[in-house]
Design a protein that fits this description.
- The structure is a single chain.
- This protein has 23 helices and 29 strands.
- The protein is of the alpha/beta class.
- It folds into five domains: 3-110, PriA, 3(prime) DNA-binding domain (GIY-YIG endonuclease); 120-186, no CATH class; 203-267 and 274-279 and 300-383, P-loop containing nucleotide triphosphate hydrolases (Rossmann fold, 3-Layer(aba) Sandwich); 386-431 and 492-624, P-loop containing nucleotide triphosphate hydrolases (Rossmann fold); 637-725, 2-Layer Sandwich (Alpha-Beta Plaits).
- β27 and β28 (684-693) form a beta hairpin.
- It starts with a strand and ends in a 6-residue tail after the last strand.
């Protein structure tokens, strides 16, 4: 008896046994390959499943088994290596296999739609258009049309969706009316050629490149630890060139979508190769098109955020993870995976090199370096001889602050602007004020659904919760006592912007946060303005600290360094050191003189002094040694199980029940259940159970046991819960 063992694309961990289609011959069933999609009845609906295996037996009564309805694929959509990666990820992160497989599909494939032939309709240049380009004068009064015509010619063809990212439809239709372009049925082309530039590397860069080249044909994990501005990107480009010469695809991961424009631009200018984006900012149609380009080998370089670690590459030859330390690589809901760790495992399975680059490598990566599992390469100097910025603490105790700025900082900003240079002010709090409080009775505006205070957004005249997104109209009197004497406390980027505008009239000011820079296009426009090197002041959140190149910035100020100094998470010191180092690195990248000011009420705090006087490389060694002494990650291992419930006691009871039934002993320690650092969020009470062990195998065995029990109890209790392996936040 032949049995089809399927994983349903759903949050269910169970696999399900089905019978083959009623009219399908046994010989045909035997040829079915793991990884193909199958449509099957499930309850009162039809679902898309993934075939795991064709089995010869089942523990379920055959009379209870249903027949699948349709075999959707003749061959698997995913290569064997990617299937293996998905199976490993499902096991390691204790997540349903169906959902993990779904992460490697586009939305169309998840819905069971067929994979259509990779052919499209695109705009191409006509013979008249070619003649017009040669003459160069016909479109002199229509520069936008001329630019679009040259763009289409450069790419050979462009789809309508591609054109909308570069030009207006009116310019396109004007070219069509003039018969300079036409819509044709086109097939994507693969280029694979590279423009090798004569870029002069310094000695340190040459040494790193040479070391990696010696291990380019097999799996090795290379860590490039280079100070900001040391030329890591140039090494990436040289390595990409080597991979393209071998007709291999390169997967380049970046932490944020907003970094895509500058990354794509630099890569596209360097290589005559097809560059494909893959991230959540794409429409479903464009994401599906990118997915097919990558799968069929038409794409040479894939640039994407964390989800791109599952890109269906057909000839993968190299993986690069830029800013590998960044917390954005960890998925925080649903399938909670680390894209960096997935990428390392994938490189191992694909037997190709992987490069992890950062000025501030994570302690996990540094421990692997220390254990000789990863190869370590250092760049200790900036390209071009530019010096690293000087860090100075600014004691703000007892000082009158305006928008979070001390008198010392205001004078320094003015001097910097007067010299024609740029300033970056870092404040990791968006909004206008972090708290609205009644001066008479002490009432504080809090989110109704979260244990958190609401933030005032002045422009929209609303109070907003930055955790659940709930908003309310700004009130003018206290709902508790009726007093109109309401105090604003705490400073956000909006308030700092307002005070800066008052103090520096006539100066260009850019506020960079998710409220003001909502998408990739807005960031692209900002970068275009800033790189013109006109004097300006940038005010922003962490968005400014991630890989951006601001050549004109010579002064950086962290307005509230103390907010980074005192945190609940054991990773607080590591994150503070990384963030300040990264923010500081935006200064003086093309200048010999640059300064970083850290405003603080605790200038003599040992860790604050350490950040000022020691490099990240030195400081990270001390932090790592301290973690090891306390058996904390990366040496020790953590797994978190959290339950969210409508009633306060339900989640605690659920976690306590699975812990008692599992009867975990040995070298795995259970901590909790305890309320989370934020006990209530989005109307749900949050409780968590933490597993800690020095042994990875032991902690995963314990987690498997707890998950199995939790799945059985959930059926009765309808509890919303999840498991997070290697959590980056204990909150």
């Amino acid at each position: 008896m032949q049995i089809l063992r399927l994983a349903v694309i759903s949050p269910m961990r169970n696999v399900f046994d089905y019978l083959p289609p009623t009219q399908m011959a046994e010989t045909a069933v035997e040829k079915l390959q793991p990884g193909i999609r199958i449509r099957a009845p499930f309850g009162n609906r039809l679902v898309v499943c993934i075939l795991l295996e064709v089995a010869l037996s089942t523990n379920i009564d055959k009379s209870r088994l249903k027949h699948v309805l349709e075999i959707l694929d003749e061959t698997p959509l995913l290569r064997r290596e990617l299937l293996e990666l998905c199976i490993w990820a499902a096991s390691y992160y204790h997540h349903p296999q169906g959902e993990v497989f779904a992460a490697a599909f586009s939305s169309k494939q998840r819905r069971g739609l067929p994979v259509s032939e990779l052919v499209n309709y695109g705009w191409t240049v006509t013979s008249l258009g070619e003649e017009t380009i040669k003459q160069g004068k016909i479109l002199i009064r229509a520069p936008k049309q001329a630019s679009l015509l040259n763009l289409i010619r450069k790419h050979g063809f462009l789809r309508k969706e591609d054109i909308s990212n570069h030009a207006s439809h009116s310019s396109l239709y004007a070219l069509k009316k003039k018969k300079l372009v036409t819509l044709e049925k086109v097939f994507p082309k693969t280029f694979g050629r590279s423009k090798k530039e004569d870029v002069v590397l310094n000695n340190a860069q040459r040494h790193v490149l040479s070391s990696i080249k010696d291990n380019i044909d097999s799996f090795k994990c290379h860590v490039i630890e280079g100070v900001t501005g040391s030329g890591k990107t140039e090494i990436y480009l040289q390595l990409i060139y080597l991979a393209l010469k071998q007709q291999k695809q390169v997967l380049l991961l970046i932490p944020e979508i907003n970094l895509t424009p500058q990354t794509v631009l630099r890569v596209s200018e360097r290589f005559d190769a097809r560059v494909t984006e893959l991230h959540s900012g794409l429409t479903d149609a464009n994401r599906d098109y990118s997915w097919r380009l990558i799968r069929e080998g038409y794409s040479d370089i894939i640039i994407g955020t964390r989800s791109a670690c599952f890109a269906p590459c057909s000839r993968l030859g190299m993986i690069i993870v830029d800013e590998e330390h960044d917390g954005s690589y960890k998925q925080q809901d649903g399938f909670r995976y680390s894209a960096r760790d997935i990428a390392v495992k994938r490189a191992q399975i694909e037997n190709c090199p992987i490069i992890l680059g950062s000025a501030t490598p994570s302690l996990e990566t540094l421990l692997n370096v220390r254990s000789n599992r990863y190869l370590h390469h250092e760049l200790t100097e900036r390209v071009g001889g530019a010096n690293l910025p000087n860090l100075t603490t600014v004691d703000i105790r007892g000082k009158a602050l305006s928008g979070g700025l001390s008198p010392t900082l205001i004078r320094t900003i003015q001097n910097t602007i007067d010299k024609g240079e740029q300033v970056l002010l870092f404040l990791n709090r968006r909004g206008y004020a972090t708290q609205l409080q009644c001066h008479r009775c002490g009432w504080i505006a809090e989110c109704e659904d979260c244990d958190i205070r609401m933030t005032l957004h002045k422009k929209t005249k609303e109070l907003r919760c930055h955790h659940c997104g709930k908003s309310a109209r700004l009130i003018l009197s206290c709902p508790n006592c009726g007093s109109k004497n309401l105090l604003l406390e705490g400073i956000g980027t909006q308030q700092t912007e307002e005070k800066i505008q008052e103090a520096f009239k006539g100066t260009i000011i850019h506020r960079v946060d998710s409220d003001n820079i909502p998408n990739k296009a807005a960031m692209e426009k900002l970068m275009e303005s800033v790189t013109q090197r006109r004097p300006c002041i940038l005010i922003g959140t962490q968005m400014l600290a991630k890989g951006h190149h601001f050549p004109g910035v010579t002064l950086v100020a962290v307005l509230d360094a103390d907010s980074l100094l005192f945190g609940l998470d054991f990773r607080g010191e590591e994150r503070m050191a990384q963030l300040i180092t990264q923010v500081s690195g935006r200064a003086g990248r093309e200048s010999n003189k640059s300064h970083v000011f850290l405003q603080t009420h605790h200038p003599n705090h040992p860790f604050m002094q350490a950040i000022v006087h020691q490099s990240y490389s030195t400081l990270s060694k001390y932090i790592l040694d301290d973690r090891i002494a306390r058996d904390l990650p990366p040496l020790g291992y953590l797994i978190l199980i959290r339950a969210d419930s409508k009633h306060p006691a339900d989640g605690e009871h659920f976690l306590k029940s699975i812990a008692e039934r599992a009867n975990i002993s040995g070298d795995v320690k259970l901590i909790g259940p305890l309320p989370s650092a934020m006990p209530r969020r989005a109307g749900k009470y949050r409780n968590q159970l933490l597993l800690h062990s020095k042994n990875r195998t032991s902690i995963h065995k314990a987690a498997t046991k707890l998950v199995s029990i939790g799945d059985k109890l959930t059926k009765r209790n309808k509890m919303n819960w999840f498991i997070d392996v290697d959590p980056v936040e204990i909150c």
